[in-house]
Amino acid sequence: MRSVYFRILPSPFFRKPPITLGVQAKLPPPPELGPVSGISTKMGTAREDGGPRPPSSFDFKAYLAGKLVSVNEALDAAVPLRSSMKIHEAMRYSLLAGGKRVCPIFCIAACELVGGTLPVAMPSACALEMIHTMSLIHDDLPCMDDGDLRRGKPTNHKVYGEAVAVLAGDALLALAFEHIAAETKGVNPSQIVRAIRELGRSIGAEGIVAGQVADICSEGMSNISLKELEFIHLHKTACLLEASVVLGAIMGGGTNEEIEKLRSFARSTGLLFQVIDDILDVTKSSLELGKTTGKDVLAHKVTYPKLLGVEKSREFAKKLNGDAQAQLAGFDPDKAAPLVALANYIANRQS
């Protein structure tokens, strides 16, 4: 069994001193998917964005809509609203505020690709969304990115105050690990332990936290290189998507070789997500995206469009999509179709 670790190298990001860091949520309807291009021809046919296409029989919109319903129902059940418990209300407010559910769906698709099932993947899928939501709650805090809008709604701290928002994020993080341990059924305990270890590494000081610290310390620095920007986003953004795919593959019983191929796929796809996010941040409005835009510009952060320009950033996104999907070449095309379509969906998303 081989584990892959990020090693944090000396970086100018860490020269700065340390940084000190009443609404009932209802289950959201599935979001409008909008037009999704390039999903109805055979695997291997070239796309304009460089990625292969799923088989012609694969209905991506139906797949995505079905998985969204399943994930939202499972999340609703995982965090019940308890009377006079403000913390559960705050947790549900952000967790059930909608969103693309990218991490859970990638987890499920990877699990099913290697022979697993939806019930096997769902506890991990929910845990990943809990952690993703935690990261958004904390990222929006005044001491971090100071966001006012998330998923088209006021951010958690705007509704519940900063203290409760911090605690809601903490509670979601703790619940994520409990949920995997308590709710995963029919899986060898060694696989569950391996998955929990993978998840812990991905979100801690070798993963998301490392990326967040580097991102904060980069504010106002004008000499950030492409390699340093990649370090930030491989950790801050790609780590969680990587964990999503790897957890799905572990729970589904994938071989070490399959898991590592899917890890490489997810790492490129996660970086692709961030490049597209940076592009949208400078080409779309807050109303179109459902979150506060232009924060990176105001904070004088380096982004891919700032470093490369919008067109070169789009070219880089195209390359990342091709690199990611090259890792799926050895899998059954029909079983890999959801992951192919999801990567293309990320590459072409408009919100």
UniProtKB/TrEMBL annotation:
GO terms for biological process: carotenoid biosynthetic process. GO terms for cellular component: cytoplasm. Its cofactor is Mg(2+). Pathway: Isoprenoid biosynthesis; farnesyl diphosphate biosynthesis; farnesyl diphosphate from geranyl diphosphate and isopentenyl diphosphate: step 1/1; Isoprenoid biosynthesis; geranyl diphosphate biosynthesis; geranyl diphosphate from dimethylallyl diphosphate and isopentenyl diphosphate: step 1/1; Isoprenoid biosynthesis; geranylgeranyl diphosphate biosynthesis; geranylgeranyl diphosphate from farnesyl diphosphate and isopentenyl diphosphate: step 1/1. The keyword Transferase applies. Pfam families: polyprenyl_synt. One of its GO terms (molecular function) is metal ion binding. Keywords: Carotenoid biosynthesis, Isoprene biosynthesis, Magnesium, Metal-binding, Transferase. It comes from the Eukaryota. Belongs to the FPP/GGPP synthase family. NCBIfam families: FPPsyn (NF045485). This is Geranylgeranyl diphosphate synthase. It comes from Trapa natans (Water chestnut).
